[in-house]
Batch of 3 targets.
Target 1
Amino acid sequence: MVQKTPNSIGYVELVYAIQHQLSFGSVRNASGEFIHSDLQALAIAAKNAGGSPSQPPASITNATGKGAYPIATFTWLLLPQQTDDSAKRMALVELLRWVLTAGQKESSALGYAPLPRDLAERVLHSLPNSPELLQDF
């Protein structure tokens, strides 16, 4: 609809814009630069997002740093707080392990920037290692 409406502005995910050959402009970031969205600019935003060893960053929106695209976010997974099915719990943990390791190699082909290695490792190390620990996961 935005594409068909003269002088209109809208927002879509980068992958959608690329796949549908939509025009899109640059956006000023926290460093005052006008940045055109691409996987590298998204990766820079994720890398500069901060956080701590025990607490990954919650947001990469308006991340600081040269080349960081400001309108970006992580893709989030919502998981049940509890489940009585230990097989499902283990399957979820194994899926998350794959996402944070080998799955990162698939990101770019799908139009997403992989997580910075240190961030993926921090989240990976926060996963429980035994089925007993999964009850509160």
Note: The first helix runs from residue 14 to 19.
Target 2
Amino acid sequence: MASTETTKPARSWSRLDGVDILRGLAIFFVLMNHVNMRLRGAHVPYTKGLPDQLVDSLVWNGQQGVQIFFAVSGFLITSTAIRRWGSLGRVNIREFYQLRFARIAPLLLLLLAVLSVLHLARISGFIVSPETGGLGRALLAALTFHINLLEAQRGYLPVNWDILWSLSVEETFYLVFPIACLVFRRVRFLLVPLLAFVALGPFARSYAFNHNGVWREYSYLGGMDAIALGCLTAIFVAQCRFSRRVLIVLASLGIAVLIFTLAFSDLLSKWGLERNGLSMSFLAIGACMVIAAAAQSKWDAPRIFKPLLGLGQHSYEIYLTHGFIVLSLFNLFVAAGKPMMAVPILFAVVIVLAALLGMLVARGYSEPVNRWLRNRWGDGPGHLGSVVEGIEVSETPKLYIEGKSEN
């Protein structure tokens, strides 16, 4: 028998500490990896004498960091959609795209404008070579979300362009996501394409099925499985309520999986899990376990995690702008004669300054523009994306993420 309940309009900008810590770890790994890539390119033997696994865990987990981002993104977008429209089958496509545009486009367009100026000024490190198609081709790829495809076909772009490969994967998924929600309507039907993405992800990353090294890392399907797992986690969390004991077990297992996949990559490689694409799948599953536990437990992080929380809360801004910090500080490092003793300082200062730049950009530009666009489009109770009253419970699973809000 259908029943109804009155639901207060829900907004979408509260946060979850556990999720922000995952974001913080993810952007930390990306920063470490990009500094490492510069040092390796300059033949600085700073890892000499260190255990290979320690080096891999500290400075080669950038791709793993992006995979965590994908899982978090799928969870946040799906849980926000459920809260706003009551169920995924009631998503308003126009409003979904408006909200996504307000969050992503302002900083992306500013970044592309700055990169275009730097390219035209012929600043070293920012010039898009003719071999990769030049500035016009890069702009087209960035605005139509196929930077990943361009790089797989023509080679890597400068670092500040290269990072947009992940945005290409993510935003292509979200172009289709609201349409799929309306086509499949009920959650049990939507599970089919989401599970299909999960199943196809390892094949896209597999050496046997994908001989293009760039495409193995940057392909659409190779990242969309983590996004789909995040979506499934949001649906699962919305429909189920776990006891405190189950949440502890779920969080513990998730953390264990994350530690194993991030800190024992050599062992995973020996087992063949990297070559067949499954190591990234396990990483995303571990992240989703932690996300589910954080969402229902409403866990408040101790003060010791404040630096990671700060990184996570501004991870999008840090991700899009950190290349400027990496290049600037690395050039100073080279100008100083590449002193080996300064390498740890280089890593530390990059992280601190990238975090500060991301925070300034978020507070001074992207967040105000995001709010302005949402207000302009009527984002408020009874308007854009508000949860409507009198919805059938069978089609409107409750989402237990009260208190701190997200995204």
Note: The radius of gyration is 21 Å.
Target 3
Amino acid sequence: MYPAELVKPMREHLTQVGFEELYSAEAVDAALAKSGTTLIVVNSVCGCAAANARPGAIQSLQNDKRPTQTVTVFAGVDKEAVDKAREHMIPFPPSSPCMALFKDGELVHMLERHHIEGRPAELIAENLTNAYNEYC
């Protein structure tokens, strides 16, 4: 588990633009039970989360079509919520950071760490906006 003071600015990077933090398995299930589209970002302390994942997710929301709700869980901190989010992301193996788009609770698009690491935020945003244009 990472200290709260370490992850606070990393959490705020997403919450300041409207992402809702989920801290429990019940909160994850409740978010995915809502109709519409949900983007879940599994946040992380790693460098690719700071340089690519969070900026890409934020940039993707500038699209005309975007998810009904945006939520986040933090790997290495919110274990229960992360484990539940990852259950919903099966058959994809656990990775962080990662991003998943759900439509009416069903996984429709996934960005694993290997799709994020080493790629610029703009490319990640483009990948997500293409998914939004198809499913949102």
Note: The first strand starts at residue 20 and ends at 21.
